[in-house]
Structure formats: C-alpha cells, structure tokens
Design a protein that fits this description.
The structure is a homodimer.
Chain A (H helix, E strand, L loop, with lengths): L13 H8 L3 H9 L6 H14 L5 H7 L5 E7 L3 H16 L3 E7 L5 H10 L4 E5 L5 H7 L5 E4 L11 E5 L1 H14 L5 E5 L4 H16 L7 E4 L4 H13 L6 E4 L2 H13 L9 E6 L12 E4 L2 H18 L5 E4 L2 E3 L12
Parallel strand pairs in A: 1-2, 1-3, 3-4, 4-5, 5-11, 6-7, 6-8, 8-9, 9-10
Antiparallel strand pairs in A: 10-12
Helix pairs in contact in A: 1-2, 1-3, 5-12, 8-9, 10-11
Chain A binds a DNA duplex through helix 2 and helix 4.
DNA sequence: TGATAGAACTAGAGCGCTCTAGCGGACGAA
DNA sequence: TTCGTCCGCTAGAGCGCTCTAGTTCTATCA
C-alpha cells in the first residue's frame, strides 16, 4: 500500500515550488504567506506555479516552525445545540483574523480533560472552553501556561487568571420571571441545570427574583440538567408534588423540551395549564412544536467577542477579564396567563 | 507579554526529559510511545521523570516526523444532531486504535470545501466526510490523493474509489410505509430532503414502495430539507393542497419536528389527524413532545465501522467498498390508525 | 578463548515549514 | 568615486519529534 496516496506522488512542498520557480524556499514561503519582502513580479509568478502544482501549506509544519501565536483550541459538547451555534461565529472570527481553530469535542466518554489534553498536545496558543465543567482550580492551574477563556461560565474567585465571556444570567432569569409574574403566575418553579456554576447562577437568580416579587414561599426548585431527558424527569417530579406549578423555567431550551414532554404526558396543555420558558434561544434550538418562550443569548456576539479578545490578549497582552453580555427575552407561544383557579 | 505562558517556561520537550534522565532523546521517544526497545527499568524511571516534568508529546511534531498514518480528518455539520451523535463513536474507535482525530465543522459560511481544505492542510492520512455535499466528481478527484470515506451518502458511479458506510435507505423508508399502510393510511406524503443523494434515495424508495402497495396515485412529494424550518414550510404547502395527507414521512427527525409544528399551527392533532414519521432516531434527536416514530440508524455502528474500515485500509490496504447497515424501525407516539373518514 | 547474537541504547538525518542574518546590486548623497 | 541605504533575495538554523543505522555491552556457545 502506498502511504502517500493512490497516485503515488507526495504532496508538493515549498521546496518543490521553489525548484519549479527557480527561487529559494524562503522566497516562496514569504510569498505564500503574503509576507512583505518580495517583488510583485515574483509574487504573481510564484503563486501561479504554486497553484499549478496544487501546493497547500502544511499546517503542522507551519505551526511547528512559527513563533507567533496562530492556533486557538476550542472544546465544546458535541450534543449541545447552543455550543454548535457558538462554533459558527468562533470559526468565522478566527479565520478572519488569520488564526487556525482546532476543535475537540466532548462526548460521553471523552470529557473536558480528554479534550483539553488533546488540544494541549497541539500546543495551541490559547484555549477557548465552552461552558467548562472542570473545577475552577484546574482552569486556574492551566491558565499558568496559556491564556484560557471560559465561554459562558463565570469564575467564582476574583483573583482568577481565567478570562470570561458570558451572559448576564441574573438578567435573563429576571426577565423570565417578570414576564411570568406579569401574566399572573405565582407558582413559578425552576428545573435547574444541576451543580455547575451556570446552573447555580440561574438558580440563585431565580430565588432572588422570586423573593423580590414577594414569592419567596413559592420557590420550588427541582434538579434537572442540560438535556431533554433530565428536563422530563424533573418535571415529572414537579407534577407529582402537592401544589404543581403554573409556570416552569427550565435550565435551557433542550431541558424545556423535556419539561413540555412531561406536561404532555400528564395531559396538561401548554400554555393553557402550564407556561414554560427555556434558555439559550439559538435558532437551531427553537424547534419545539410551539415557538418556545426563551431567554435568547447573543450567540454571535459571545463567539465573536471571545475570539477577538483572546487574540487581543495573545497579540498585545490585553487582559480580557469578565465580559458580560445582556440577553434578550423572546416571548413565544409557550407562556400565557396563569390559569384562573391557581 | 510572554508568549510561552504566564510562568515564562516553555513546555518540556523530549530533549528536556532526556537530559533530566541522562539518556538520549531516542530512548525517551521509544518509551513515551510505548515502542519496543527499552528495558523495563528505564521505562519506569523515564516515565516517572516525564510525568514529573509534565511532559506532553507535541502532536504536530509527532505527525510531521512520523511515517505511519495516524491522523483521520473528520468533517460534519455542526448543527446536525445526527452528525454530533456519530462523532462519539468515531472518537472512541479512533482513539482506541491509536489514531488522532481532527475535526472540521461545516457551518453556514464554512462549507464542505473549506472544511476539507482545512483537513488537507493538516496532511491527514484519510478523510471521513459525514454526508458529503460536494459533487461526487470532486470526491473522486480527492480520492486520488488519499482514502476518502463517505459516511451516509452512497456513490452513484460504481467505478468510484470513494468508500462508503451507510444505511439502507430503501429498507428504512419501506419499514415506515409498511407500518403506515398497516395502520390503514393511504394518503402518505413525503417531505423530502432536497436534491442530495440521500434525499434522492429516500424519495425514490418512497415512490417505489408506495407503488408496490398499489398507492402510486397517492404519491405526494414536497421539497423539504434537513432542518425544522424546511419541514415546517413544506408541511404547510402540503396542507394547503387539495387532499391533505393522513400521514407524512419526513426526511429526518429535525424535519419531522417542523412538520409537526406546521400541523399544530393548522390545528391538527398528531397522531389523531395526521401521523408523522422521522428518520435517524439518534437519542438526542428524539426530544419531540411526543416520542417520534422514526427510522433508527445504527449510529454507533456507522461511526465505528467507518473508522475501523478506514484504518484497515490505511494499514493493510483493504478496500472498503460499500458497507450497508440495515436500520431499525422504532414505533413511537406520532403514528396511529388512519382517521376513519380518510 | 574468541566468535556471535541479541538486547539496550545512541547519533544524526529529516519531516515542511518560519525566521534571522546576511549578501549582492541599484541608487542617491557626499 | 565612495559610502550608506534600501530592496529583493538566499543560506541555514531550528521547531519537536520519529526512524534508520549504527554502537556498546552482556550472555552464550563452539
């Protein structure tokens, strides 16, 4: 078997182009990179030859030899619609700035740590972790050797060196509760996202905001998660309780789907009997049979800002700190007036 | 600003470990790779030192220097739940076999060609393209320089050098139609996936199978797509027609969501008024408020087989050809008996 | 005793690129 | 004329690794 491809010929290298053009490897390098230091005449001539030969730079060699930062490692959960959405703007921003993006997906058996290690193996210059799930201390430790940006998750310790671009969770939850209360709801429950920082923030915001509305005794929280199954199980427990809620704020859109599923199972109608609010609001996530009422995060902005700031830090050492975007509340068809008797 | 990390120290290299251990770079290389040729004593000693130093092999250098194939490039659509599902088994199988996987996502503005070029830049040894959208000729041309495997999409020309691992589309559609016909449905429509090969196969299978059931005059096809929006728009057109169907087979699960959405909009109940069948059946895709009746592809099998075969080809030159898996039909809650009057 | 084999290890080339240092020639200024 | 300067270009080192072709050392056997 021929390793180099069925046609038996190696991929052309800089050397090949240089030989064909009768110039040095260095000149070709300058030209294909678009770096200054070559005459216009040489540029057009060499580029034409490179094209003819089908030359494509070897990214591995380029990264190995280069001295300026050029590689951003990104990890995300492959089964998250919201993460997938963020990738689009991350790709676009990075490519526009001349940076390579290397992806490492997190799956069931391939978690944060695996993914981060894979990225470190590529010696990326910075790490963009979407909603990191490892302990903050680990991120902190990592940040000693390269810039780390957490997209979505806040850092608890102010002293941290880990940069953050995120959404104002409290604002999002507040909008949702204000909306529901204005519709006459009082028994507003929360299916939370579990023990993570984002989940904790949303849960606390829920509690605070309920209290501010004088509904402290109506606070009802049940452990959910970031997927539909978790939402469904959680909602089922909620409905089994003594006083089922008239509105449910789910941890995210997928979770909200599960919640609606459970309501359906219980013969309840949305929003007539129970109102449901999601979170994230990425277009791809809004496929529910009813247009989901949701807290819309600025996906494009989050992705773009993360990359822009990370690059600014890499190139000029500008600190990023904690960038907070305000979400938008998007009323849909899954929320309505509280039932009369409630 | 210090490029090499805030602690100012470069990442340790083989050289560093070798020096610390008082042995040659070559020996350390042998040991960290787990290659034969080192004593047990050296192994434990050097490994301990490597660990202490926090040594992590540089993948770029390793790939650049290595002569045996080790890198599989994978491209997929970031917003496809089915593709995301496939990634899990692809990762696991490849890692288990000691291969690196490099991902390149396809997004709105970052299409097949971009993604493939990015992967070629890394000089991957083989390309695994999930549901490729480029013309077959282009794949064919690509296959001249490295093994190409199309996961999901069949090749039209028998002479092609592109390998395929896919699902038996005809069988899947047949199961769906048999199921619906057994429930008394006659007006079974199809919201298709557009002009791609997979879409065409499912469409043709639909037509053939309807004909076999003596329902040729009931054939009703409307152009959909692989997402909920497309499904919704398509179903709307279907319902506007003279004789709306009593059952709809959607191109995939996301499309089916859209179809259900349109039915809901029209005040129709699923499955009382109209039955709906999806396609793919990955767990993450089955979040509809009703358990979707769907044609379940063997996601794990597809991913695993693709990688296993690709590796077999790389290492032993074994041809892959056209591997076809048979899907499973999973009856859910979105299909029921045809309405009496229909 | 010396030849021989095998195990353990090393030297050094080379993967494809970038980057620094420097070279030659053209040109303008003194 | 001579010097300096700038432009266009090249030589060659080096990025961190793998791999081939040794070398050394010990054990074994005629």
């Amino acid at each position: 078997m021929d390793r180099t491809g069925s046609n038996g010929s190696r991929k052309p290298t800089l050397e090949d182009v240089a030989r064909a053009a009768g110039v040095s490897r260095s000149l070709v390098s300058i030209i294909v990179r678009g770096a200054p230091g070559a005459s216009e005449a040489s540029r057009t001539r060499v580029m034409a030859i490179a094209r003819d030969l089908g030359y494509l730079p070897d990214v591995r060699a380029r990264l190995l030899a280069g001295t300026s930062p050029k590689l951003i490692g990104v990890t995300y959960k492959t089964n998250s619609l919201h993460h997938a959405d963020l990738l689009s703007s991350i790709y676009e921003t990075a490519e526009g700035a001349g940076y390579e993006v290397i992806l490492s997906g997190r799956t069931r058996r391939h978690d944060d740590r695996h993914a981060v290690n894979a990225l470190l193996g590529y010696r990326c210059d910075a790490l963009l972790i979407i909603s990191p799930e490892v302990p903050e201390a680990e991120l902190q430790q990592l940040s000693a050797s390269l810039p780390i940006l957490s997209l979505g998750r806040r850092m608890v310790h102010a002293t941290t060196n880990v940069d953050v671009v995120r959404t104002d969770e409290a604002a999002g939850i507040r909008m949702a509760i204000d909306h529901l209360v204005a519709l006459g709801h009082r028994r507003v429950a929360h299916v939370d996202g579990g023990g993570g920082v984002i989940g904790t923030d949303r849960r606390r915001a829920y509690r605070d905001c309920m209290t501010r509305h004088g509904l402290r005794d109506q606070v009802s929280i049940v452990t959910g998660g970031d997927n539909a199954d978790a939402g469904r199980r959680a909602a089922r427990r909620l409905l089994d309780g003594p006083e089922p809620p008239t509105a449910i704020i789910a941890y995210n859109d997928e979770c909200a789907w599960g919640v609606m599923r459970a309501l359906e199972d219980a013969g309840l109608s949305v929003p007539r009997d129970v109102s449901v609010v999601g979170y994230d609001g990425s277009p791809v996530a809004r496929m529910a049979p009813h247009e989901l009422t949701t807290v819309h995060q600025d996906t494009d902005g989050l992705g773009r800002l993360s990359v822009e700031r990370l690059i600014a830090r890499l190139e000029h050492g500008l600190p990023i700190g904690d960038v907070v975007l305000v979400p938008t509340f998007v009323p849909g068809e899954t929320t309505g007036p509280a039932p009369a008797g409630a």
